[in-house]
Design goal:
The structure is a single chain. This protein is mainly β. It is built from no helices and 27 strands. It has strands spanning 24-29, 32-35, 38-47, 52-55, 60-63, 81-84, 87-91, 98-102, 110-115, 120-129, 131-137, 141-150, 154-158, 163-172, 176-183, 191-194, 199-205, 223-226, 230-232, 236-238, 241-244, 247-250, 255-258, 263-266, 280-283, 286-289, 298-301. It has a 17-stranded parallel sheet that branches. Strands 18-21-24-27 form a four-stranded parallel sheet, with no helix packed on it. Strands 19-22-25 form a three-stranded parallel sheet, with no helix packed on it.
Length: 310
């Protein structure tokens, strides 16, 4: 899971690379673009503001696995993804659906489809397989008609300001079916969830105007201390207080989720005398922080007298 601040789409004008034809795709799409047949996405694709990408019936879109973990500001995850800041029109039919899936095997092999603030997305007759998020809608208008999302980490994620109209949408075998973080959501009909590994639906409630702390002062907080280096090899969640004294590495394919109110604290361990502690989080897979205004996720020193470099 992830937080949903608007990305820096204003830097689009400074980016030079773009592609406008089917075949190998990557970079920024401008103007009117059509995809058909087999389309191989070799790197992140961004539909620029004012541009329209139309995907014709029967198109098969294959996303290559990301070659690095670097995430540019205009994109949302280390996985290869289709980000839309303009318009996306997917025109699949029951007889000739449009399929989006990764070249790699397994769940989370590619980033997914991202509808950014101000975007318009119509997914009709589409099948989305094996993405981190099948559809991530953040402040966009999305219409889903006859859509199947299969084997995603999160089937559909709705961020603040999103507008969605769904008809005949099936979320199948996802870790979480629907994550609704709109904070003041209207009910969504037309969506069915089956085979969710963790939860069919998760909702992030709207914060109260005068929010109370998560726990009363002095209330006990679950505490975990991790001694030495740790590799997070599979998806896991942290909550309460987690204290580190060395590096924790989230390996590719794993996602570390930090629940609301989690405190991640680092002890100062400086074996080399460099003036810097060795405690850190190294993210080669994914991290999702679920902090709320009244229950933030906090990263800080664990020392009684905190100092820079702890």
């Amino acid at each position: 899971m992830r937080s949903f601040p608007p990305r820096l789409f204003l830097i689009l004008a400074a980016l030079a690379a773009f592609a406008t034809s089917a075949g190998a795709q990557g970079g920024i799409l401008t103007g009117e673009v059509e995809w058909s047949g087999v389309v191989r996405v070799s790197e992140d694709v961004l539909v620029a503001p004012g541009a329209t990408l139309t995907v014709l019936p029967g198109t098969h879109v294959l996303f290559a696995e990301a070659l690095s973990t670097r995430t540019d500001p205009v994109f949302w995850s280390p996985g290869t993804e289709l980000a839309v800041a303009g318009r996306l029109r997917v025109q699949g039919t029951p007889e000739a659906p449009v399929t989006f899936e990764g070249d790699g095997a397994g769940r989370g092999a590619w980033g997914g489809i991202v509808a950014a603030p101000g975007a318009e997305v119509l997914l009709g007759g589409a099948v989305v397989r094996g993405a981190q998020e099948g559809l991530l809608c953040v402040g966009a208008r999305c219409r889903l008609d006859g859509v199947r999302v299969e084997g995603a980490e999160y089937g559909v994620v709705l961020g603040p300001g999103s507008e969605v109209d769904a008809t005949d949408v099936a979320l199948l075998g996802c870790r979480v079916g629907l994550l609704d973080a709109r904070q003041a959501p209207a009910p969504i009909s037309g969506v069915t969830v089956s085979g969710a590994a963790d939860a069919p639906v998760l909702s992030v409630p709207a914060p109260a105007r005068a929010a109370a702390p998560v726990a009363a002062p002095g209330a006990p907080r679950p505490r975990t201390e991790i001694l030495g280096e740790l590799a997070v090899e599979a998806d896991e969640a942290w909550s309460g207080e987690v204290i580190l004294n060395a590096r924790v590495t989230v390996l590719p394919g794993a996602v570390l989720t930090l629940m609301p109110g989690t405190r991640v604290a680092f002890r100062r361990v400086d074996p080399h005398g460099y003036g810097l502690g060795v405690g850190e989080l190294l993210i080669l897979g994914g991290i999702r922080s679920l902090g709320l205004p009244h229950a933030p996720v906090v990263f800080e020193s664990a020392e009684p007298t905190p100092a820079p470099g702890d």
